[in-house]
Specification:
By secondary structure, the chain is of the alpha+beta class.
Length: 87
């Protein structure tokens, strides 16, 4: 089991001897599951519309480049309001 440290700051405070201050907070613990490392690190992404790749590429060509995930950015030529036109 590991320990975590929580650091809280509310700004400068002046307390007299014997005074105390309370910090009320909630923790929302997110359920998690073990990561399938082989699957996770086996994913390869190609971002279209970012980093100089501004033309649409069909999914088959993306896959032929070794990518398993294709991300379409809003700056991609041929996209209007999220719909493809003349890809």
């Amino acid at each position: 089991m590991t320990q975590s440290e929580i650091v809280s700051f509310c700004g400068p405070q002046s307390l007299e001897k014997g005074q105390s201050i309370s910090f009320l907070f909630d923790l929302a613990i997110t359920p998690s599951k073990p990561i399938d490392m082989a699957s996770h690190y086996g994913q390869r992404t190609l971002q279209l519309g970012y980093g100089g790749q501004n033309a649409f590429i069909p999914a088959k060509e993306v896959a032929s480049r070794g990518a398993t995930i294709m991300t379409l950015h809003q700056g991609l030529h041929g996209l209007v309001d999220g719909g493809m036109i003349n890809p």
